[in-house]
Amino acid sequence: MEHTYQYAYIILFLPLPVTMSIGFGLLFVPTATKNIRRMWAFVSVLLLSMVMGFSVNLAIQQINGSFIYQYLCSWTINNDFSLEFGYLIDPLTSIMSLLISTVGIMVLMYSDNYMSHDQGYLRFFAYMSFFNTSMLGLVTSSNLIQIHIFWELVGMCSYLLIGFWFTRPIAASACQKAFVINRVGDFGLLLGILGFYWITGSLEFRDLFEIVNNLIHNNGVNLKFAILCACLLFLGAVAKSAQFPLHVWLPDAMEGPTPISALIHAATMVAAGIFLVARLRPLFIVIPYIMNLISLIGIITLLLGATLALAQGDIKRSLAYSTVSQLGYIMLAPGIGSYRAALFHLITHAYSKALLFLGSGSIIHSMEPVVGYSPDKSQNMVLMGGLKKYVPVTRITFLLGTLSLCGIPPLACFWSKDEILTDSWLYSPIFAIIAYFTAGLTAFYMFRVYLLTFDGCLRVHFQNYSSTKRSLFCSMSVSVWGREPLKIDNENLPFLILKRNINNKVFFFSFFSKGTYKNKIYNNVINRMQYFRTYFQNKYTYMYPHESENTVLFPLLVLVLFTLVVGLIGIPFDQGVIYFDILSKWLTTLTNPFQKNSVDWYEFLTNAIFSVSVSLFGLFIASIFYGSVYSSFQNLNLINFFVKRRPRRILLDQIKNVIYNWSYNRGYIDIFYTKGLTMSIRRLSKLIQFFDRYIIDGITNGIGVASFFLGEGIRYIGGGRISSYLFLYLSYVSIFFIFYQYFYF
Amino acid sequence: MTSYFPWLTIIVVLPIFAASSIFFLPHKGNKVFRWYTCCICLMELLLTTYVFCYHFQLDDQLIQLEEDFKCINIFDFHWRLGIDGLSIGPILLTGFITTLATLAAWPVTRNSRLFYLLMLVMYSGQIGLFSSRDLLLFFIMWELELIPVYLLLSMWGGKKRLYSATKFILYTAGGSVFLLIGVLGMGLYGSNEPTLDFERLANQSYPVALEIIFYFGFLIAYAVKSPIIPLHTWLPDTHGEAHYSTCMLLAGILLKMGAYGLIRINMELLPHAHSLFSPWLVIVGTIQIIYAASTSFGQRNLKKRIACSSVSHMGFIIIGIGSITDTGLNGAILQILSHGFIGAALFFLSGTSCDRIRFVYLDEMGGISLPMPKIFTMFSSFSMASLALPGMSGFVAELVVFLGIITSPKYLLMPKILITFVMAIGMILTPIYLLSMSRQMFYGYKLFNVPNSLFVDSGPRELFVSICIFLPVIGIGIYPDCVFSLSVDKIEGILSNYFHR
């Protein structure tokens, strides 16, 4: 039993060889490495399943007899400071590593098929394995510096993977945005770590907690400074977990491949912030106000994320906003003092959301041959609809994931979300009302996604979605909105804007045509595209989406299994007299103070009924709005719906318009950041550049020019002409004589 | 154990000797010169490593391998060499970077004999500077450095090379005047006969005003070289115009001479003035980090942008030196080495890619990642290293400097908080300009009108160079003790001065 703990550091290093060997292989022997590409996927899945074996073993041991194991070795030794590396195995670590390895295996298996036609297949697996390494390192780390190191490494992996399709400008700016915003979080984290190092002189968790506790009880520390440092630490969690002011990177991060969105941006990396909060709970509890801040940020985020998710047209983006909202729930839970619920929801949400993302990836893959390879089209829910005929298995898994996220009873998320909602009643009624309202919203937007995707009939062929046929499109749109004079308000119609991005498409086609990019000039690509388009119009019009292959469906089904089962770990069982609940037993060190020793089933039932009825109400509204089978064409998205009925219900329409604009413009937060921060930084840099160029450098150049003129002047005087010398000489002599005569005579 | 064999003299003289004999080589094309220079550099590097391995004790903080020949009787000028834990790192860095720079300079075909000659002369000058134990010798080596750089700049470079070379020589020569004043002042002060020995000077004490004047004179010279704002404007111009192997030497070694001199002379010989000046150094360093980073956004030229980033990174060295703690100084030395590697590699990669696409302005570039994946990989790795990603050397250096300024007993609470905060803002700005640079260069898609034959990925030589630099970057990042163990005793010795008084 001890042995597992002693060798637990292996789980950190297991996925690493794949990255290193793929990296070296691609640099030195590219062709040989590419020839055995499937082999690498196999190896990485194998190594990760070994990790999973280890973590299962650790988890079982933690459940049976939970004790904390810590191993340290020195990293740098100096006279003043010593940094240590080590690993810490405790319940939190075992939960997280189990989560990471299971979701990671599923995603790796899935992406073997999903990415199989991509040029960057090997690169993808290298990044993925490196991500797994650094994420496992993050959860097993034993001090704050180590956390910071792996914290930035996962950020870098996220950067690389968002920018995976680097030929697309959107992806390029998205990955930079993600990195910079995460860097803001790292900035906070580093400053917080340094602040606590200064206060306590230690970076080790246990020493740190003890010292801070003593200091606060003895008033040995400036309380404001401690609060500031704790806030800075929390800033790191805010950025990584996409909480309110810094959530803007997560929706943009959907530019990466879909398996990445499932693994990194839904299940694991974004949970790192919550992991940090859970890890530092003893610290945050003793410092006042910080818990209130955490719960406040959580509640803002969950409401904001839900409202922004209401009218997104892109399937992955709406899932991303849903992730933001759910992360808000998870962040709210520790703020109101229920860590157990936070971790529970973290686990259940990770599986459900991974399932949803993988499902959306399967949908995207089945749509791609029909609508084209641009994410503006293949992820656009406007063009989907009625997919349940074509992709039945995906549809069932997606439905189960949706229902789980909505909080419908037998599924996983119900149990955890209900716990959070119940606990929020105990904390503050206002928060509870917002949380319940958001639960309804969650049900609404998730079911909206489901209905737009699978219900009705396929809208691609109605849309005639082709940029050459603009006139035709317009005439069609007149027939749709024929009651009023045509006002095509480009800002409000996503699918018109998308047309402008024709360049994008060019990037796409050239990217996917292997090896031909070199000698294609622009026109050729255009020609090929037009060829493709005609081809598409003549033949592909009759083509329908297909169900994905089995290697894609297998992970989906496994995740469905998890979604069904994983709720059990938190459900209290009555075993005779002993109260039994796996998660609580697991988390003996982290159980919350509110947790009662016996479960009041009556109270539980009333709460559950209330939350389920809220969710069902949301579902019902969504099905009224979007579920109309007969006229799905008219209900393309919210705006069409509004435009159609404008004369009748003006006030309601206006409200809806406000909501729609709010959601479409992403709550105006991105605009604010672009206008406010980016522009001001640019202006500042221009100013400083001007200062540098014309003042500091100007002084130097000015001195140069001045000395030049001085030299010229002297040269002119000392020009070497005898006559001028003679002239000067004689003139001075004559002046001298004049003075001489003037004074003496 | 002391060997009387003059190892250091051989190490210093060998490159310049080899350089002067380059004229006797048969004129059979560039290949001969290339191989000759590479072999000399490699031999020198191996010799240095051998000497340091077998004739140098790490745990001894005194000067080792000392040599002392009297050169000029009347002036007490000695050929006095010696190394300690402080100088061993920069010397090894010099050997490493110069060897790789000669390897990187293979595409130079115009007058290559002179080019390699100048590089070898520079090699000698740098090693001589880092190992000299005599003030006047230090000054001579400092000046010896300038001429090859000036020639390298003015003969091989971009369109405005003469302007930038003149700017460089005027700036540095202007700084050298102050250095000379300082050297002579310190040498002639006090006793009847001039003393130029470091060890004797270290025990000498001056009146405060005089010490401050000396300190200031030296500081100006180093501020030009390091560079410290506001004397930094030569750097972007020079780097923007120079050939990339010259840039490697400039960024890798030449900038480090200023920081080295600041530790070697200002900290060791003038401790009193240093403790007076150190708050100003820290403030200037903090401003420099932010200032240079924000200047860097505005630069359109790729190389100038990297040059500004290296100015920004120099700020950490200055802060580390100014913190007067063990930790901070260790961090400064680590940053000297780490930036030596990273800066050199970034200049190399940007130079090679600029040569391929024939553009230097960032807004003209774009989408070169598809034809050149290897350069893309290496460039991203090094920009990650430069923005202090953990696991690479830059992170350790910056973290240790941070810890140094935090633990420094010299400063009060509020200034510390402010300084740390502003430094950390630099941590946010760095990725913005580095990543947007790499985005503008590599990301996206673009079709070029350049013939395909130019669009080749980096060959084995270039890959070798960049990987050679990458390995120590990773190595230091994962196991920084290997650098700390060199310098830690010596730094303790230096700092013990400050706590005696």
Overview of this structure, please?
Chain A: Belongs to the complex I subunit 5 family. Chain A: Keywords: Chloroplast, Membrane, NAD, NADP, Plastid, Plastoquinone, Quinone, Thylakoid, Translocase, Transmembrane, Transmembrane helix, Transport. Chain A: Its EC number is 7.1.1.-. The complex is a heterodimer of chains A (745) and B (501). Chain A has 745 residues and is mainly α. Helix content of chain A is 72%, strand content 3%. Chain A has a two-stranded antiparallel ribbon with strand order 1-2. Chain A has a two-stranded antiparallel sheet with strand order 3-4. About 13% of the residues of chain A have low confidence. Chain B is mainly alpha-helical. Chain B has one domain. Chain B has a two-stranded antiparallel sheet. In chain B, β1 and β2 form a beta hairpin. Chain B starts with 6 loop residues before the first helix and ends with a helix. Chains A and B meet through β1, α8, α9, α26 and α33 of A and α6, α11, α13, α14 and α15 of B.
**Average pLDDT level of chain B:** 87
The helix count of chain A comes to 34
**Shape field of chain A:** globular
- Oligomeric state of shown chains: heterodimer
First CA to last CA of chain B: what distance?
Answer: 34 Å
> Structural class of the helices, strands and pairings of chain B?
mainly alpha
User: If strands are numbered along the chain, what order do they take across the biggest sheet of chain B?
Assistant: 1-2
Largest sheet of chain B: 2 strands, antiparallel
Can you list the strand order of the major beta sheet of chain A?
1-2
Our count of helices of chain B gives 18
Structural class, from helix and strand content of chain A?
A: mainly alpha
Can you tell me the residue ranges of chain B where pLDDT is under 50 for at least 5 consecutive residues? none
Instruction: Tell me the distance between the termini of chain A.
Output: 123 Å
List the chains of the largest interface with their residue counts.
Answer: A-B, 62 and 66 residues
Gross morphology of chain B: globular
- Please describe the biggest sheet of chain A, giving its number of strands, its sense, and whether it closes into a barrel: 2 strands, antiparallel
β-strand number of chain B: 2
State the low-pLDDT regions of chain A, or none: 465-541, 575-579, 589-597, 630-635
Helix share bin of chain B: over 70%
